[in-house]
Every structure is written in C-alpha cells, then in structure tokens.
Specification:
The complex is a heterodimer of chains A (about 260) and B (about 325).
Chain A: H1 3-18, H2 24-42, H3 47-71, H4 76-81, H5 85-88, H6 94-128, H7 137-160, H8 165-180, H9 182-191, H10 194-206, H11 216-220, H12 227-253
Chain B: E1 2-15, E2 21-34, E3 38-42, H1 49-57, E4 64-69, E5 72-73, H2 77-80, E6 83-86, H3 98-109, H4 113-126, H5 142-154, E7 160-164, H6 172-187, E8 191-196, H7 199-205, E9 208-213, E10 216-221, H8 223-227, E11 233-239, H9 249-253, E12 257-261, E13 264-270, H10 274-283, E14 287-293, H11 298-316
Parallel strand pairs in B: 3-8, 3-9, 6-7, 7-8
Antiparallel strand pairs in B: 1-2, 1-4, 4-5, 9-10, 11-13, 11-14, 12-13
Helix pairs in contact in B: 3-4, 4-5
Classes of the chains: A mainly alpha (about 260), B alpha/beta (about 325).
Chain lengths: ~260, ~325
C-alpha cells in the first residue's frame, strides 16, 4: 500500500489516542462492570442476556459517537487550523489524505472495539462463571458493529469534506438514526403508491441499512448467524464506505482551501 | 531555467450567499524567478500575496493561467518533493513533539527512512529548537511555532522554498536569525520566494522584489533599480579635525542642505556638485568620511507606488 496513506493513517490514530479518545474505555468499563454486578444480583437466568444486550449496545453507541465526533472534524478541522497546508504542499495527493484519514479513524475504532470486546467477555464471565461455544457468536456481532463504524466513518468524512462540523454531525447522526430504521422505510416503500413509492424506495436504498447489522438480540438468544448474512453485510459495508469515500475525494479534489 | 514561471495566474472568487458576485483576488500575473535568486513579494495585507502562494502550492485552483516550478507543471506531485513551504501564521498538529512532527513531514516528503531522524534533529538544531525537540507543540509560543514552520519547510532539502511572512511573530533576534538562514539558503544554491510587508527585510535580503497591490503587480525589479530613480543627489559626510564641525561657506553656496552633529557634518547636494563639495572640504581641511548617492528607501518607493495606484484607481472610477 502507498506509504504516505499509512503515515497519514498512523498520525490520525496517534492524534486520537493522544487526544484521550480511548478514555471512553474507562466509562465503558465502569458501565459494564456496574451493570454486571447489578444484574448478577437482581436477575435470575437472564443475566447473560442482559449483559450481552447491554454490552454490545454500549460498544455500538460508544463507537458511533466517536466515529461521528472525530469523523466530522477530520477534514474541516485541518482546513480551519491550516494544518493541511503543510501536508498538501508536499508530494501528497488529496485522495491519499482522505483515504489515510479514513483508515486512521477506522483503526482507532477497531482498537477501541477490541478493548471493549474484552470488557464484554469479562462481564460475561463474571455473571456466567464460564464460556460456552455460543459465546463466540458475540464476535460476529462485534464484527457487524465494526462494519457499521466503517460506514459511519466514511459518511462523517464525506460530510466533513464540504460542511461545517456542526452540520456534519447533524447529517451523520440523522443518517444513523434513519439507517437504523431502514427496513421499516423499505416496508413503507413497498406499501406506498405512485410517486411516494418511488421516492420512498429511493430514500430507503440510499440511506445505509444499519438494521441489517443489528443482530444483538438474536446473538443474546444464542441464535446462529447465516454465513450469507455475514458475506452480504461485509460487501454492503465495504461498498457503501467506498462510495462515501469516493464522494469525499471527489468533493475534496475540487475544493479551494481558503 | 527559471525556478518559478507564473503564466497568467488569475483568481476570481464567487462571494455572496444567494446571488454570487465575482470578486477578483488576482489579476493575470506573469512572473519569472531565476534559480538561486531570493525574490521578495511585497504588498499590504489583502494584496494577493497569499493567494499567489496558495495557487502555487495547489491549495486553491486558478480561474485561468498556469505555472511551472523547476521546469515542471506546478500541479505535478513530483515537483512538490523539491519544494518547501511555510504558510502564514503556521499551525501544526499540537499533539506531536517538534521532533515527531518533523519526522512525520520527512515521511510524507519521501526522505529515506534511515535519514529521517537525523534530518529532523539537524533541522531543529538549525532553527534553534534543539533543546525543546521533545516538547509537544501545544506548549510552544508563537515565535517557536514560526521556527518549527521554517524547519518543516527546509527539512527535506528542497531546491525551491516559499515563505509566507517568515518573520511574523519573531522577536528581533529571531528575525536576525531567519535573515541569516535565508542568506545561507541562497549560498547553498536554493531559490527563495518570500512574501512580506516588512520592507527592511526585503531590502536587506532580496535580489529582486515585486510589489503587488489589489491583485495586480505594480512594480518589479532589483531593489537598487526600484529605488535609484532617486533625486540624483549625494550625501557628503565629513568630520572636523579641530573641535566642532563647521559648515564651509563654499558648501552653503552650492545650495546644500547641511546639518552638524558634534564634530560631524552632513550635507545633501546635487550629483553634479560633488567635485566642488570635495574641493570645499579640502580647502577647509575637513576630513571626508563618505560620499554616497541618496536613494529612496524601499519603504518610500512602496508607499509612493501604492498611493499612485490608489490615485489611478480613483480617476478611472
């Protein structure tokens, strides 16, 4: 891979770490250990269910918040602070900068998720005192969560390439919420008629379908995940992220850095 | 081969929220700077200096025109490995230390991995930041950041260096050091293009200067040429060998404007009268210290140029 992209990615990762982004892990650890102790005392037989549900939802929400709030500043902050001037005056192409930034943020989120996953398994062991084969399914749920992060990162980056951080945050968060109900939107589109049907179908397929990535509940109930779904979600996330990054590159390539 | 060749660079911005109106930031600019030259780009704030530099760095795109840097098209990424750039009021990743930042820039500039650390160290040493190389940039003062800016611009040993207001934020000592550094760069054969509104720096350093105002190049030439359109006058300085200096009557008779300070006398006379003035000093047994042509300072020339431009604009309006 192009080494300049790797250097930009590694600097983005280092910036996130030094800006104490990983401190969220402390909050996550406190939340999870508190919850594990609490459910261990008040629930009978469903401790595991609660811990898996709560743990994975927290992993997802913490990551989404980080992806949006770092992602929206990835380009706009560099333009505003003019740190970009000394980067782009070197033999660095604009697309390399965008891809490097994306990979840096994605790397931060993967590392973050890795530590949170250890937390989830730790809490699970605390309440269940052992691991069973079905617990490995949690890894698939975590994988899907990471795929969601890739989409969110790329969308935040796309918005950051042309908009202010505040508007980018609003856009990215709105898309996350709408995307979480994408299946409902598709259902509505199927029931609608005429122009509404066309518009609803268009919107339903344009927004990211996050509902397909949410398998937390079925994992908590130890239901297996179809390989087809894993493949489909992987391709979908990579394709969606690639499209969003291409959009960001296209906008950024033609942008005057005033 | 010119190091910089600007061929009709032009920039117009669209301003306004609903109705976009064009606002011209730069009129067609043609300029050529030779290799090894120190070129000063002068102008008041908002004249178009930074716009020109941003165009050359590919940070903004020209409405028309093009440029060649070191013989290649200015957009060629390869040429950028040979270029150093210090932006105006630079700001850097403040989570990094000075050494880490330079190491990062060395990576992006294609400096071989083995050399990066040594190069970063040597450059920090050169700009006087050796002792704070391990300090995070968020703890740096404005002057120190300016030095870091200069360091990152010369780190990869570029052939062509662009400085946008390099003396900004520096104390007198720092300014002196940067002046010396720019002179060293010239001796190393580098081409330096720097924008400034501190005219004494340009006067002291530049082989040639260009004056830009309201997006248009108003004057171009060597400092000596631009300021030699003077009044055809010379300044004579002499010293008395016995007590306070006197103004010789024959010098007064030439219509000279004379001033006495202690034992030193000073007179401004016409160029054609300089032989008569020297004779007058000899007759009075006064010691000639110097005889130099009176030049308009670059500052006076600059102000006159801008006033002229203002007047012309007023008339055409």
């Amino acid at each position: 891979m192009n080494t300049r992209i790797l250097h930009i990615a590694s600097n983005t990762f280092r910036e996130a770490v030094r800006d104490r982004v990983l401190y969220n892990l402390i909050a996550f650890a406190l939340l999870l250990s508190g919850a594990a102790i609490l459910v261990g005392q008040i629930s009978i037989e469903i401790e595991k269910l609660v811990v898996i549900n709560l743990g994975l939802t927290a992993v997802s929400l913490f990551g989404i918040v980080i992806a949006i709030f770092i992602g929206i500043g990835l380009v706009s902050k560099e333009i505003e602070k003019r740190t970009l001037y000394t980067i782009l005056s070197r033999p660095v192409r604009r697309w390399e900068f965008i891809v490097g930034k994306f990979l840096g943020l994605a790397g931060t989120l993967v590392v973050n998720t890795f530590f949170m996953a250890i937390g989830v398994y730790g809490a699970l062991f605390y309440v269940a005192h052992k691991f069973v084969r079905a617990d490995s399914l949690i890894l698939i749920a975590l994988y899907f969560i990471v795929l969601q992060f890739l989409i969110i990162c790329s969308l935040s980056l796309l918005f950051s390439s042309f908009s202010s951080p505040l508007l980018s945050a609003v856009f990215a968060f709105s898309l996350f919420v709408i995307g979480s109900f994408a299946e409902d939107l598709r259902g509505f589109a199927r029931m609608a008629h005429g122009l509404t049907r066309w518009l609803a179908t268009g919107a339903a397929y344009l927004v990211p379908n996050f509902s397909a990535f949410n398998i937390v509940s079925s994992i908590a109930h130890e239901q297996p995940v179809a390989l087809q779904l894993v493949l489909h979600n992987t391709l979908y996330a990579l394709f969606y992220a690639a499209m969003a990054i291409s959009g960001a590159v296209l906008i950024f390539e033609n942008r005057n850095l005033k | 081969m010119p190091a910089i060749e600007i061929l009709g660079f032009e920039k117009t911005y669209k301003v306004g929220f609903w109705v976009k109106r064009p606002r011209r930031a730069l009129y067609p600019l043609n300029l050529s700077v030779q290799e090894g030259e120190i070129f000063g780009f002068l102008g008041p704030n908002g004249a178009g200096k930074t716009t020109t530099l941003k165009l050359l760095m590919g940070l903004i795109f020209p409405t028309a025109g093009s440029a060649r840097l070191l013989g290649k098209l200015w957009t060629d990424p390869e040429v950028k490995a040979q270029i150093g750039f210090l932006p105006e009021q630079p700001y850097f990743y403040d989570h990094l230390t000075a050494h880490e930042l330079l190491h990062y820039y060395a990576q992006l500039s294609g400096v071989p991995a083995k050399e990066r650390s040594r190069r970063a160290e040597a450059t920090l040493n050169r700009v006087g930041l050796k002792d704070v190389k391990g300090v995070q940039l968020r703890k740096f003062s404005k002057g120190m950041l300016q030095r870091v800016g200069i360091a990152q611009a010369i780190l990869h040993d570029p052939k062509l260096i662009f400085f946008d207001e390099p003396m900004s934020g520096l104390d007198p000592m720092g300014r002196r050091e940067v002046r010396d550094l720019i002179e060293q760069l010239k001796h190393e054969g580098k081409t330096v293009f720097f924008s400034t509104h501190i005219l004494s720096d340009a006067e002291a350093l530049c082989d040639r200067v260009g004056i830009i105002y309201k997006g248009e190049m108003r004057a171009l030439g060597t400092v000596a040429n631009l300021t030699s359109s003077v009044q055809g006058k010379v300044e004579v300085i002499w010293r008395s060998t016995q007590g306070d200096a006197q103004i010789p009557a024959s010098l007064k008779a030439l219509g000279a404007q004379c001033h006495i300070t202690g034992d030193t006398g000073r007179a401004v006379i016409g160029e054609t009268q300089q032989d008569a003035a020297i004779d007058a000093l000899r007759r009075e047994h006064l010691r000639l210290i110097s005889l130099t042509p009176v030049r308009t300072s670059l500052e006076t020339y600059f102000v006159e140029k801008l006033q002229h431009a203002e007047t012309s604009a007023g008339k055409s309006a």
